[in-house]
Amino acid sequence: MTTLSEKGLQLSKNAFFNFMVSRASGIMKKPVKIGLLLTTAYERLTDANSNESGVNQIKDLMFRLIRLVKAYYSGAYRQVETKSLLLGVAVLLYLVTPLDLIPDFIPIIGFADDLSLMAWFITAFQDELQKFQLWEESSVAVGHS
């Protein structure tokens, strides 16, 4: 049986996700569009109702990704590889795009492909997300000194 992350890896190799990567490349040059994407992704994640601990962990890490992208575009945080940022933006685009492999209006199953892609990203780019978390925590500590 494949894990959620392995399913996400398979999704990351399909043509639709590659299309999302090319869209992400264009959007990354437009801070206003990034802002809209982050707002939409945040709303989408907030609307994803689930009390499953694994889902909540994925959501928390995706919220961290949203904060990372926001910090990058505000200029506050730049210690992220361009490839990681590009793939993160592509995952967020996939999350908010109404057309994906399994429509989200199909309960549970419709959100499964989104979850698996998020799980893959989190697994593949865990170091980047952890570096950002440490930066966030030290920034808060410095800000409150």
UniProtKB/TrEMBL annotation:
This protein's record includes keyword Cytoplasm: no
UniProt keyword annotations, A-Z: Membrane, Transmembrane, Transmembrane helix
Database matches in Pfam families: DUF1232
Domain DUF1232: 86-120
Name by which UniProt lists this protein: DUF1232 domain-containing protein
Coiled-coil boundaries: none
Membrane topology type: Multi-pass membrane protein
InterPro entries: DUF1232
GO CC, any one term: endomembrane system
Keyword presence, Signal: no
Annotated compartments: Endomembrane system
Top-level division of the source organism's lineage: Bacteria
